[in-house]
Amino acid sequence: xxxxxxxxLFVLYGGFAGALHFGLLDGALVRxxxxxxxxxxxxxxxxxxxxxxxxxxxxxxxxxxLVIWFRxxxxxxxxxxxxxxxxxxxxxxxGQFALQAEKSFVLLSAATFIQPALLLGAVVGLNxxxxxxxxxxxxxxxxxxxxxxxxxxxFLFGKHRGKKYPRKMRSAGYLWQLGCCxxxxxxxxxxxxxxxxxxxxxxxxxxxxxxxxxxxxxxxxAATALASVNTIVLSVSQVVFPYLSDGLGTERRQRAYGWxxxxxxxxxxxxxxxxxxxxxxVQFFLPAYVLSLPILRLLxxxxxxxxxxxxxxxxxxRSSLRQxxxxxxxxxxxxxxxxxxxxxxxxxxxxxxxxxxxxAISLWWTVDELLLRDLTGRTLHQIGKSLLFxxxxxxxxxxxxxxxxxxxxxxxxGIAAALLTTLAYGxxxxxxxxxxxGLLLSPGARNTEx
Length: 450
What we know:
Structural class: mainly alpha
Number of helices: 18
Distance between the termini: 49 Å
Helix content: over 70%
Order of helices and strands: HHHHHHHHHHHHHHHHHH
Number of strands: 0
Oligomer: single chain
């Protein structure tokens, strides 16, 4: 259990190490998504070259200091893996952003899922051969991300090979100018995204610093169970931004927001039913982690509003160039989480940390909704209805999850969720337009009607 806890520490802090691009990736995405593909083709290789030089200048000295001064510390291996992961992750994500700007969503989805698929296959093989150690797991994680990144860049280089540009666009001066331009464009987006990640991860950070590694492992297993949900949320959020950046009119943005909210909350309510089979799997195959089930229940309640923050709020703020609003919402989330987690930490009970995060994310969601009212056309009544629906579904879920019989709990919750969803969003869901998925996912798709 201690080794699993250390692995989850790597995953947690590795997510923050990706911010060492200082906004280069976000700036490139904004500039590529808002302009012609000719710019992307011209800037693709120089952007990657600048990124690798930047990461080398930052991380090589950091790795040297880590090896010289801290190689005997118990956290040395995790720290070294985090620094290496920053380089691999940033290079891979820059390629994914290029696919996102081109609206190559089939390939983007494949790139998003290939890394966890490769990791899972490798872990199964290592476990079968009795070689699954912390060192092997960290190396496998980095290798899987590297393989996914190489695949993306191989495709991009193959697609854009043979393009010749003036010599000045291949000079060191141009490389520096392009990199600085991307950083200047994206640093504020990075700050907002970093605050968002800090707010959503603050409970795990506090648990890692305040509790034993075994407790952190128990808490992290609950968070790991939501990995598939988080992957889907990330993939959908990557699809939304390029279409909003095409300049949808106010009326169409408001209609799209209403449909997006109804779909997000409907899917969230349906996903809560997945707790019941997960409970059975943990009870039968991971009895040592049964203590993570109360935490898992509460963390699942946060995924609906988290999805809306990532998919709707963040993209509406970014596409309308309202980074200040995004910062206000994320700062509110961090402040609320910090205060509530500080209180919960003194109780010494892990489920109370989850309750604290649930309250903080609910407040964050509400602040975002109020800040976006002029863009989304949402009334206070509609915002209140969403909160009431979330509270009602959450209450029904917690009651049904407390039933000892998994089947009875699942059926009871399914009936309650279906009734609540029909009452709250039935009319909106029935009015959803039929979307040509082939057009939506094609690289040349533009400004699909809604």
